[in-house]
Design goal:
Elements: H1 7-21, E1 31-36, H2 39-43, H3 46-59, E2 64-69, E3 81-84, E4 91-93, H4 98-111, E5 118-119
Parallel strand pairs: 1-2
Antiparallel strand pairs: 1-3, 3-4, 4-5
Helix pairs in contact: 3-4
Length: 127
């Protein structure tokens, strides 16, 4: 093991260690939104919700990465989205309609306020 020679080296090691201890944290500096686009998600309106999220984030000038993903495992709650804020645990929201999509952007992403419809997962989401 090598010696640590500066505070910045120590901080770098600390940040890397956080991800080992809490791999569910979003290490990226921007907001990420993953939207379930499996058959059940698309059938439930996920494409329309993705468009609403893109428009709302653009209108609010949020630096965001919106990505379609596969099944999130809770088909009964489609359309579903997973929101990852920088250095926060991800949150998954179900039964997302146009109104709730805008609320998630305006309240949760911009202000950090809770929004109804969060699904408490019994597993850790992976990429």
């Amino acid at each position: 093991m090598s010696k640590i020679h500066s505070v910045s080296e120590l901080k770098e090691i600390r940040e890397k260690s956080k991800l080992l201890i809490h791999p569910e944290l979003n290490p990226e500096p921007i907001v990420q939104i993953k939207i379930g686009m499996s058959t059940c998600g698309i059938a439930s309106g996920a494409k329309e919700i993705m468009k609403v999220l893109e428009e709302e984030c653009e209108q609010q000038a949020i630096d965001v990465q919106i990505k379609p993903t596969g099944c999130l495992g809770y088909c009964y709650a489609e359309p579903m989205i997973e929101v990852l804020l920088p250095n926060k645990k991800s949150k998954v929201f179900g039964f997302v309609d146009k109104k709730r999509a805008k609320e998630i952007v305006q309240l949760y992403i911009l202000r950090g306020e809770p929004v109804e419809g969060e699904i408490k997962l019994s597993f850790v989401p992976i990429d």
